[in-house]
Every structure is written in structure tokens, then in C-alpha cells.
Amino acid sequence: MSTTLQDTTTLHNGVFMPWFGIGVFKVEEGAELVQAVSIAIKEGYRSIDTAAIYGNEESVGVGIRQGMADAGISREELFVTSKVWNADLGYEATIAAYETSLKKLGLEYLDLYLIHWPVVGKYKDAWRALETLYKEGKVKAIGVSNFQIHHLEDVMKDAVVKPMVNQVEYHPLLSQKELLSFCKEQGIQLEAWSPLMQGQLLDHSVLKEIADKYQKSTAQVILRWDLQNGVVTIPKSTKEHRIIENANVFDFELSKEDMERIDSLNENQRVGPDPDNFDF
């Protein structure tokens, strides 16, 4: 189990991926985002997650360079993720989208590139493109986002390279136990987006009760639950005190009983679209 902000899990191709990172969903281009990314890196974060559709890759790139300078670290010490959007899921279009993301970020490579959503009839061509990028050494690892078990099985049926990561909506009201178990069996690392359910869980009575017991915030308890379930987590925040607080989850451990209490909160409730019923 991870004990520091720099601890990593090893993907099935041997690449080290931090257990903890910062997400930037719905954060607009500009100074606030640049500052958030640079502060996170300065505070010890080593994983930054963005996507083409977020429309903020340029500011993320500026924040990365500023953060590296402030922290005195090299590019090789960071783990940067982006994602190809639904409109670019053809083979050539996916490769072009990757190059566009690199240019906007101002980077020479990505550590992880994901297919953002499983658009039926398109994601297999996109996966072939990701395999090409991977084989050519342009990206360290490749994976998918929002894929259910049947999507993963469909991809793996023809894939030469198995997905290394599956980033999905994951929080106490959507614990997706079958998907988590399947990914563990297949050696695919599950990663949580919206781990705090876009803030909706911060006042949950059971989670607050558990948080009080450990003298931690509700957010810290949820993020610790992620880690103890073997799930990589990338909470979003632009506020310095939240960025610092979110990462302060390595000095305590939830008991088996409290893990089970949180597990029991599942209601299969989403804040994002259902991958099987998403109007792409």
C-alpha cells in the first residue's frame, strides 16, 4: 500500500504510475489552472491528468514547466495523461489528435494516452492507433476510459497490446466491484475520476462519521478508500489548501470494518454519463 505521494503502482508493461495525482476536468485555460498544476507539482504531486476535450492542455503544459522549475525536477519524474476525444476515434485521426495534444502541452511524449469513451464502432480503430503510438515509443503506456467489462473484452479480443489502465467514474456511491475485480484479474489498473462525486459526498453522514473518527476530512477518507482498494485516484482542485489537504492521506489507514462500511454505500449512482447509454 502506498505510503507517500510519490509511491507508484507498476503497470503490466513495467511502467511506474503514481497512485495519486491531480485532475483538471472543467478547469478553464488561464492563470488559475497554471497555478494549480505548478502548486501541485511543487507540493509533491507527480501525476497530472487532462484531456483534449477539456480544452486546457496549453495551460496544463505551462503549469507543468513552471512546476518542474519550482520543484527542481525533470520531465522524467512526472506522469502526464491525456485522452483522445470521441470525434477523433479513427485510426489516422487518433494519431493526429495525439500530436495535437503533445503540441498544446509542449511535451515530447505522454506517459499515458487514453481513449476517452467507448464509442461503438470506433474505439477499435482508435485502439490500433494507440498501439502504433506505443510501439513507436511516442507514449509510455496506453489505456481506456469509461470502458465496462464488455468493452474491455471486445478490445482485448483483437488487441496486440492489452490496455494498461481503465479510468472510470469511481466513488463510494459507484464502487463498480465487478469491474474492479475484472481489471485486477486482467492486470489492468483501475483509475478513479470524480472520486469525490464532484463534491456531492463531502456532507454524507456516514463518511463524515468515519472522517471524525480518524480526525480527517471526508475527502481524505474517500481518497484513502480508493488507495486501499488498489485504485489510482486523481481528485480535482484549483485551491492550494485543497490540493495540499487532498494529498494528506498517507499517515492513516482505514480499518477493515470502515472499508466495508464505505463499500456498502454503493447505489450504482453516477454523476457522469452511463458508458452504455451515452449520446456521443
Would you kindly provide a written description of the structure presented here, covering whatever features stand out?
The protein has ten helices and ten strands. With 280 residues, the protein is of the alpha/beta class. The chain has an eight-stranded parallel beta sheet. It has a two-stranded antiparallel ribbon with strand order 1-2. Helix 1 packs parallel to helix 2 and helix 2 crosses helix 3. The chain is globular. The model has no long low-confidence stretch (mean pLDDT 97). GO terms for molecular function: oxidoreductase activity.
In a nutshell, what does this entry contain?
With 280 residues, this protein is α/β, with parallel strands linked by helices. Helices cover 40% and strands 15% of the residues.
Give structural attributes.
10 helices, AKR, TIM Barrel, two-stranded antiparallel ribbon, NAD(P)_OxRdtase_dom_sf, 280 residues, Glyoxal reductase, eight-stranded parallel β-sheet
Produce the secondary structure layout.
Layout (H helix, E strand, L loop, with lengths): L7 E3 L5 E3 L3 E2 L7 H12 L4 E3 L7 H15 L7 E6 L6 H15 L4 E6 L7 H13 L3 E7 L3 H10 L6 E5 L7 H10 L2 E5 L11 H10 L3 H11 L3 E2 L6 H7 L9 H8 L17
Helix pairs in contact: 1-2, 2-3, 3-4, 7-8
- How are strands sequenced across the largest beta sheet? 3-4-5-6-7-8-9-10
Average pLDDT, rounded to a whole number, is 97
> Unreliable stretches, pLDDT < 50, 5 or more residues?
none
Q: How many distinct folded domains?
A: 1
CATH superfamily: NADP-dependent oxidoreductase domain
The shape is globular
Number of helices: 10
CATH topology, anyone? Answer: TIM Barrel
N-to-C series of helices and strands:
EEEHEHEHEHEHEHEHHEHH
> Rounded to an integer, what's the Rg over CA atoms?
18 Å
Spatial separation of the terminal alpha carbons = 37 Å
CATH architecture: Alpha-Beta Barrel
**How much helix, percentage-wise, in residues?**
25-40%
Largest sheet: 8 strands, parallel
Structural class: alpha/beta
Report the count of strand segments: 10
CATH class: Alpha Beta
GO molecular function: oxidoreductase activity
InterPro entries: AKR, AKR5G, Aldo/ket_reductase_CS, NAD(P)_OxRdtase_dom_sf, NADP_OxRdtase_dom
Domain NADP-dependent oxidoreductase: 31-267
Protein name: Glyoxal reductase
